[in-house]
Each structure stands twice: as C-alpha cells, then as structure tokens.
Amino acid sequence: MKAVAFNGSPNKEGNTWHALQLVTAELEGEGIETEIVHVGNKTVRGCTACYRCVKNRDEKCVLGGDDVNDWIQKMKQADGVILGSPVHFAAIGGTMKSFLDRAFFVAGVNNSMFRHKVGTAVVAVRRSGGLPTFDQLNNFLNYAEMLMPTSNYWNVIHGRVPGEVTQDLEGVQIMRVLGKNMAWLMKLREHGKEAVPPPERETKQFTNFIR
After folding, report:
1. Above 90 in pLDDT, residue 210?
2. Check: CATH 3.40.50.2300 for 2-192?
3. Domain limits of the chain?
4. Most buried of 10, 52, 72, 164 (most Cβ within 10 A)?
C-alpha cells in the first residue's frame, strides 16, 4: 500500500512539511510506503471552467505547463491521500487551492477516480484560521466520497518558524494519532475489499434552483 501527501506550503521543509512528516512516519511504521509532493512552490493556474475535461474524460486537465496531471495520477495510484496546507488569510494556500480545484474536478468527471480511497487533511498555522482551512480541505475529500480517518482533535498544528510545530505537544499527538488511524483504516479497506463489496456508484444528480 502507498499514501501520497501534498505539501501546499511555499516552504519545502516548513511547518506543513513537518506536520506531514509526523503523519507519514506512523504510516511507514505500519509498512505503508509514503511520498511527499511539494506543490506550494510551483506555479499552478486555477480552473478556467472550460469543461473540456468533462468532454474528454481522459483523466486530464487540458491546462498545460504544470504538474497537475502527474499529481492526479499519483492520487489515482495511491491507496491513501494526505492534503497539507498552510493558512493564508484563514484559507488554503493559493497554489494548493488551484491544484485541488482542478484535480478533484477531473477526478469527479472521470467516474469519481478517488472514490473510497482513504483521505485526510492537515493544517499548519501560526495562530488563527486553522479550522476554516481544515474545513475547506475536507470539502474536497467529502465531495470525492473518500474515507476520512480522524484523530483525537482537529488536524491543526501550531508554529511560526519552520520546525516550531514540533513544540506543540498536543498538535504532535494529533498528527501521530491521525497517522495511526489512517494506517488502520487503509488496512481495513485493503483486507475488506473481497469480503465486503462497495456500494454501487450512483450517477451524480444536479438540481438548479434558478431556472
């Protein structure tokens, strides 16, 4: 089994990276392969609502010049996905948001590619805005029908300078418990595939209230 984590911070080894390291260390301790992909330092254009991915249905976004399509395939091939973001004005970092908007839209129109994968989110913040950012990340996981492991508190860890989050003892425990629960859920899913068939996927229904 493998889990892929996405670091949405501009800093390669900032506090978001440290948070992801705490989670992936627990996964690796359970024999699960992990990879951390640095997204936040890249130039990623936002979705242009061209709907060509809906027409093509080839598991790709038509916008070129970045690594979004490679990252989509990494998520498709992984058993578990971790979304990590810093907090920018009480919200997801801009590059990370652009990536997620495109990736999850492509996944959704291609037979819900991420459906029933194990997915979770972590947030690193100096002081405030952690919970709104955590909620925003969870919206992507929920939309994709992913299985979401929990911890013993919300998955937010606090620190300012890189590495300072390791002094947040409660935050460190939150990440550690999350990693253990994620590994357990991934193993349950893997071992239960044959014993318990998943529910049939339903075609998405759209209701527009303004006609």
Report:
1. no
2. no
3. 2-192
4. 72
- Beginning with the edge strand found earlier in the chain, give each strand of the sheet holding 33-38 in spatial order: 33-38, 2-7, 80-86, 118-125, 156-158
3-state secondary structure of 79: coil
Please report where in the chains the tokens 């999850």 appear, as a residue.
104
Tokens of 43: 């130039």
Phi-psi region of 31 (alpha: psi -120 to 50; beta: other; left: phi over 0): left
Amino acid at 55: K
Task: State the pLDDT confidence band at 72, using cuts at 50, 70 and 90.
Answer: very high
Grouping H, G, I as helix, E, B as strand and the rest as coil, residue 25 is: helix
CA–CA distance, 55 with 71 (Å, rounded to integer): 21
Q: How far apart are CA 156 and CA 40, in angstroms?
A: 18
* Tens digits of residue pLDDT in 182-201: 999 999 999 998 899 999 99
Average pLDDT score over residue span 54-74: 97
Q: Report d(CA 104, CA 112) in Å as an integer.
A: 9
